[in-house]
Amino acid sequence: MSRIRLLPEIVASQVAAGEVVERPASVVKELVENSIDAGARQIDVIIRRGGISLIRVIDDGCGMDRDDALLSLERHATSKIRSAADLEAIATLGFRGEALPSIASVARFRLTTRERDAVAGTEILVNGGKIDVVRDGGEAPGTQVEVRSIFYNMPGRRKFLRSENTETRKIEHQLHLQAIGHPDVGFTFVRDERVVFQLPAAAGLLDRLRDLYGAASVERLLELKGNATGQIRLRGFVGKPGVSRNTRDQQLVFVNGRAVENVVLNAALREGYHTALMRGQYPVTFLFVDLDPGSVDVNVHPAKREVRFRVPSEVREAVVHGIQRTLESDRSDWQEQFRAPAALSMSPAIPPTASATPEVKPAHGELPQFASDFALRGERSFEIRAAPSSVIPSREDERVHKLPSGPEQAAPPKPPANQNFQIIGVLNKLYVLMENAEGLVLVDQHAAHERILFEELRRRMEEQGVPSQRLLLPQTFDLPPRDAEWVERNVAVLQKMGIGIEGFGPNTFKIDSLPVFVSAPDAVQFMQAVIDELKSASNSSSPLRLGEDMIAKTVCRHAVKANDPLRYPELEKLIQDLLQCDLPYCCPHGRPTMIQISHAELEKKFGRKV
After folding, report:
1. Which of 254, 307, 534, 552 could form a disulfide with 588 if both were Cys (CB 3.0 to 4.6 A apart)?
2. Pairing outcome for strands 500-503 and 508-515
3. What are phi and psi of 603, to 5 degrees?
4. CB atoms within 10 A of CB 74
């Protein structure tokens, strides 16, 4: 007797539905995507009891005639593709023809649809995958899908659903994704007869974000300066440095209008914000990546959440450069606040200081030799050895200098005419208070000095090279095939970082030198850490990427501390040097260096404005 049997059609449909319909939010996602593909300009979503009792999606799209309506309930029936070649260039949100039959097999299903020029529409009732009624309908042009009692015939699946509030939040999140991805479409969401939100069709993405998150949140975003790289175009908005979340909940990425999850894009965002965010924080992003549909494979996951790029390195580089250019452009705009002419009184408002202003010497010169007097241990099993004060310019050679104290005091010199900020004083011996054309500015003198010293030391080491030391005995080790392939492609990068490495057979490598600030008793573990650290890095990243933690921790020890009194020339030089940094708005650990409080915020605090 044969042990292999064909499953009944109903059972096969329910098994297949489990890949597409996970919960009510999956139903909403599939139905809304169908509405958008149908050219809808207004989509209304109505739910009851978190979508478990009722989901109704109404659109004003093109609609269907009776034959198409019946055919849409057959598995793998679709108007999106015609042949296998079409799978290589999918330009629509849906394409498999599985959504409607999968939904109809696990719920009580009602479909009404009518084309714009048709006299009557079509109404179809389906219970658990079986068509019960087909008749004329009188609904408005477009399509309306009603799903009741989801998983009523699959109690095992239904018991895995969460509370009504949880399921509602997941539906609302899906609608947010669709609304952000398609701002030209109006959305209305009604929960238990209460309107949750009503979004009219927006003129652009910025208006849609303002409708969803409010004007205050939009002001903390920067428009992405995504220059097209080859066939890749970037657009959207990203958070300013320091604007972050503890999770990726607001790190939204769209590829050709489709909300996706992709490790390449996540790594590129992290790389683009390198040293601009604190560890464990994730940037707020609304990133849109538009590229040739043939360069991305969306037929990877049954729910179409994941995509695969044909050339992931190009996409990663484009995103990294786009983020970096955006942050740099914000720096230019930020610097203009301090350079543009303004009607400010330029007489310093801080207490008098020394009578003479000493010459402030830049921190240039020969790169000191690294020493190993102390070690900074990280999470890895190898050491990052940092130099003592010889690595960092001494206080006499730093960009910010202490002035000698003396009994003779005099007023400090007036700032230059083109300097659009006035130093008011120092709060709590830590925060520098300034006035600029926008209002009040607070500067953390320790964080600011950290950023200045960090970029100065990194620049000097990049120009003069990363010092390395020969190993007494070269070490050989084996790597897994994928890691070995990565090392072979990046030997030049590793050598630039001070790692002397070369091939020594199939998947075998030899190391004969290391950076002087690294001590690696276990070469295999060390190289694995290096590979994991640099895989997500941009090709144009600093060759000192491996030593940046050491640099950041070292400059932290030598930067101006809280309670260190600075005088006017020192403060002025500190601000000027900070504004010349690549990322002036945060220290190497991601903490902000400057906070701007506008005149409008101050007036609100004092009740002058509502």
Report:
1. 552
2. antiparallel
3. -65, -35
4. 11
Higher pLDDT, 489 or 371: 489
DSSP 582-605: SSTTB-TTS-BSEEEEEHHHHHHH
pTM over 0.85: no
- For 105-138, letters b (16+ CB in 10 Å) and e give bbbbbbbbbbbeeeeebbbbbbbbbeeeeeeebe
Question: What are the tokens at 380?
Answer: 């890895």
Q: How is residue 194 written in tokens?
A: 């209460």
- Gap between the Cα atoms of 426 and 350, Å rounded: 8
Is the pLDDT score of 416 beyond 90? no
DSSP strands (E only) in 365-504:
374-377, 383-386, 409-410, 421-427, 431-436, 439-444, 468-478, 500-503
* Cα gap 481→465, rounded to integer Å: 31
Distance CA 301, CA 307 (A): 8
> 124-135: per-residue pLDDT in tens?
999 988 999 999
DSSP state for residue 412 in the 8-state scheme: P
327 phi and psi angles, rounded to 5 deg:
-65, -35
Q: Which domains does the chain have, with CATH numbers?
A: 9-202 (3.30.565.10), 220-333 (3.30.230.10), 353-461+553-605 (3.30.1540.20), 467-543 (3.30.1370.100)
b or e along 263-289 (b: 16 or more beta carbons within 10 Å of the residue's beta carbon)?
ebbbbbbbbbbbbbbeeebbbbbbbbb
Q: How confident is the model at residue 405 (pLDDT cuts 50, 70, 90)?
A: very low
Alpha-carbon distance of 420 to 344, in angstroms, equals 7
The 3 state secondary structure assigned to 333-352 is HHHHHHHCCCCCCCCCCCCC
Residue 500, Cβ density class (10 Å: 0-12 exposed, 13-18 middle, ≥19 buried) = middle
Amino acid (1-letter code) at residue 252: L
Q: Are 35 and 59 in contact (CB under 8 A)?
A: yes
The Cα–Cα gap between 396 and 433 comes to: 25
* Residue pointed to by tokens 């120092």: 426
Q: What confidence tens digit (pLDDT) does each residue in 495-527 have?
A: 777 788 888 888 888 888 887 766 667 766 777
In terms of average pLDDT, the best of 128-137, 295-304, 420-429, 523-532 is 128-137
Give SS3 for 135. Answer: strand
Label residue 347 exposed, middle or buried (CB < 10 Å: 0-12, 13-18, 19+). exposed
Query: Beta strand 431-436 with 518-519: parallel, antiparallel or unpaired?
Result: unpaired
